[in-house]
Amino acid sequence: MSENIIYCYSGAGHCLDMAKSIARKLGDTDIVMMRSFPAKTDAREAKRVGFVFSCMAGGLPGDVEEYVKAIQIAPDAYTFAVEQYAGYLGCGLRKIDEIVPLTYWTGISNHSTAIWLMPHILTFPPTTPAAAQARIDRKAAEVGALVLAGKRSEKRPPKEAAFALMSKGLGKSHARRVRKFAANDKCIGCGTCVQLCPRENIRLVEGRPSFGASCMGCLSCVQFCPTQAIDIGKITTKRERFPCSRVTPAELCQKIIHID
Ligand SMILES: Cc1cc2nc3c(=O)[nH]c(=O)nc-3n(C[C@H](O)[C@H](O)[C@H](O)COP(=O)(O)O)c2cc1C
To answer: Is 17 helix (H, G, I), strand (E, B) or coil?
Structure first.
């Protein structure tokens, strides 16, 4: 059993990259992915248990809330959480804190991977992807040092009642949006999207992806398609993708990543 466990949810790879940076600072860490039900839920032997995840629709992504409920943690373990968001923190940290009381929590903004909503470059205040990455790297180093030093947050994460309501509507809005997922003529039938889908919601039919109804909106398929062949309606046809260049699709699909 590793000394530290970080539970991570990531769609376009930025949170996984950050979890890896924090893990390198902590040493001896298992990163357990929460894109689907976590491969390891018994974390009782870990000294430190962390969560690194993205804000989605103002709340927690996918089924993360249910997954966190299944995790067992020693009563004296140090717990921490880091949320990446594009514009606002939302209620995700608070939701985790209600299940696993957090010793330390924090957030960091990045460009938006919600490609159908806005070009990722539209950030306020404006940043380049390189500047956002540098900020995330600094934050990861800071989080690693604070966690090792046993930092305690004085306040609980914000409740953000409006965001809690908004995130409840996520399922319905995705059910509508998923009808617009389609492969364009650039598709080479490589099946990367099929491998990446945490819900097994994509299959190849005559060499082209066919999308089912259980999308949770991680957008790994859209962001990591090697030929940018997956669109969500017309709005994404000319929009630049924003996958994390330091994470590969194969890595994102792993269940547990160990960092020494
Ligand atoms: C479906 C979806 C919904 C999102 N909703 C929000 C949101 O409500 N607020 C926000 O600030 N960022 C939102 N984001 C942006 C992500 O939190 C941000 O881009 C994050 O860095 C993505 O991390 P990842 O690459 O590990 O998936 C959303 C992204 C996606 C794909």
So the answer is: helix
